[in-house]
Amino acid sequence: MIDLGRLRALHAVALHGSVNRAAEVLGYTPSAVSQQLAKLERETRTTLIERQGRGIVLTDAAQQLASTAARILELVEDAELTLEEQRGQAIGTLSIAAFPTAARGLLPPALARLIDEHDRLDVRVVETDPFEAVAAVNRGEIDIAIVHDWHNTPLGLPEGLSRVKLGSDPADVLVPATHRLAGKEFVRAEDLVGERWICQPVGSICHEWLIRTMRRAGVEPEVAYSVAEYQTQLAMLARGLGIGLLPRLGRGPVPDGVVVVPLQPAPSRRLYAVWRTTTSRRPAITVTLATLKAAWPSRDTA
């Protein structure tokens, strides 16, 4: 009988394209994954991998076996879900992926409540960008992803994923206290022509939102500083290095020397929880989604 763990290793290598990436996802060492593949070769008396440069490629036989493994693993997951559903309790391991400000501004109270009310649920958290978080859920590596998008920069979901809106997170323009716009009641996009921006890196949803919003106003924004962490952006703002647009969730206190100026029309990003539709009946998914919704601030985040 073929060992299920070895099939899981083969499936991960086929899915992710390398032993190292498969090991990272499975929580093994690359050596352990290679050993699983070698044992599977002996078990099946079939050549499954071939060396190519410094890496490996799967043979045609391995690809066929990996396809079969995917169906077997789906059946195993379905059996596990059925058993958990019958127990009616949130148990086992549940993984959550969240972008940094959600991890800081939303997750702490939600996690504390989950741990307090469901002591048989082992929750694990990883910080990652929304695009990668959705992909990880789709691949079955993560159970729930907390993601965001903007009205003019929607985040598409692959077929087979479900989502629920957690809330809306307003964003403000932040400028140094000595800036020409610091005393304004509000600003519009056209008021920001010629400014040097401190913004998240290219490829992030926030960066795409800024580019689209300013271009719609006929302005090509100059992103002088590509910085992922909001606390670093705030430190740069306090030194007068540029201006930024920061959502309120997880932003933290605004330092001295920085002024918040509302932008009109007021931008707001939408936060969602995303999960695989097939796991909807799992009690751990149900209670976690309910807890995340309950943890959302009842007023505008600050």
Automatic annotation (TrEMBL):
Residues annotated as domain HTH lysR-type: 2-59
Protein transport listed as a keyword: no
Cited CDD domains: PBP2_LTTR_like_6
Pfam families: HTH_1, LysR_substrate
Signal peptide (from-to): none
Keyword Transcription regulation carried by entry: yes
Keyword entries, A-Z: DNA-binding, Transcription, Transcription regulation
Superkingdom of source: Bacteria
Sequence similarity: Belongs to the LysR transcriptional regulatory family.
Stated name of the protein: LysR family transcriptional regulator
Organism: Kribbella speibonae
